[in-house]
Amino acid sequence: MSTPSPLHEVHAALGASFTDFAGWNMPVRYSSELAEHRAVREAAGLFDLSHMGEIEITGPEAAQVLDYALIGKLSAVKVGRARYSMLCDADGGVLDDLVTYRLGEERYLVVANAANVGVVASALVERAEKFEATVTDRSTEYALIAVQGPKSAAIVRAVSDADLESLRYYASMPATVDGIDLLLARTGYTGEDGFELYCAPEQAQQVWRTLEAAGEPHGLLPAGLACRDTLRLEAGMPLYGHELSARLTPFDAGFDRLVKFEKEGDFVGRAALAERAKQQPSRVLVGLTGTGRRAPRAGYAVLGPDGTTEIGEITSGALSPTLGYPIAMAYVSAECREPGTSLHVDVRGKALPVEVVALPFYQRS
């Protein structure tokens, strides 16, 4: 039985189609995923992200816990700021990619992907054992709503007391919306400016309706998981279980910059990642673009210039609503990594031409 979101009644009233996602019953679309996608690119979209997990780390050595548990240097994050990082196992494989907010000198909030909340919480509890800190899974205490798109700031400004001019990208602050206290963050997963609002589940419907009303004059639409996936793909953002997994290290996915070997002390996966950093990768993550209307999909084989030799696999693919042509991310043989390289994708038995391109496919102006 899937867990309903605190906003399930709202979604049902809006005519949403639902899907099971990581054990949650979530809206996949409302009217048209194409219309929802375009609303985010041109105006704003309203997302329910309550399936995400929130794990709190508190105590005098909370920063040291995260420096040991994650590959990044979270102790360097200032209060009010956030950082993208990864949780790896001892072999360097990625267990999850995370956003961590520093809410106070001794308080952090780690936001995990829905399918990995249990793994992340358990790993953090285990890795915190030798430190003076407490790890608490707060996932049931939060609902999460996102407003994404070029009009998002105008919408949030209309309903909030927050000073948005001082709220930088990857930062957060306490705020109120319609008299409700919440955490307001300027983060997102769409490639657009946007905000994420963390509130109590019982207050989520009021926050949603307030944002929906404020957004109506700006062209805001409720947006489901389907368009969230095409938006993040256009922005070249990885999805756990596709571009990232326990079988892959951050180096495989091109996230070398996240591994902070210079931080003091040991961290889980350091030795394995140090060895991996010395090696040339056999496969690398690249962007691919095609022509026509037939899009590569996850799991399709990537073929070499000859159109017959298998040299990789699609991890995510779709017909880009913004660009109007097929796009995909794929792991391919390292010698085929250069932008401009001509390859093929096996789409249901037919070798269709694609070209290697630099990521992201789309970048807001």
Automatic annotation (TrEMBL):
Q: Which Pfam families match?
A: GCV_T, GCV_T_C
Q: Indicate the segments forming the Aminomethyltransferase C-terminal domain, all copies.
A: 283-362
**Which SUPFAM superfamilies has this protein been placed in?**
Aminomethyltransferase beta-barrel domain, Folate-binding domain
GO MF, any single term: aminomethyltransferase activity
Q: Which residues form the GCVT N-terminal domain?
A: 7-263
Q: What is its EC number?
A: 2.1.2.10
- Name the reaction it catalyses: N(6)-[(R)-S(8)-aminomethyldihydrolipoyl]-L-lysyl-[protein] + (6S)-5,6,7,8-tetrahydrofolate = N(6)-[(R)-dihydrolipoyl]-L-lysyl-[protein] + (6R)-5,10-methylene-5,6,7,8-tetrahydrofolate + NH4(+)
| Keywords, comma-separated and alphabetical | Aminotransferase, Transferase
User: What enzyme class is recorded for this protein?
Assistant: transferase
Summarizing the function annotation, the protein's role is: The glycine cleavage system catalyzes the degradation of glycine.
According to the record's subunit comment, the protein's assembly and interactions are: The glycine cleavage system is composed of four proteins: P, T, L and H.
Q: Which family does it belong to?
A: Belongs to the GcvT family.
Protein's UniProt name = Aminomethyltransferase
- Record gene name: gcvT
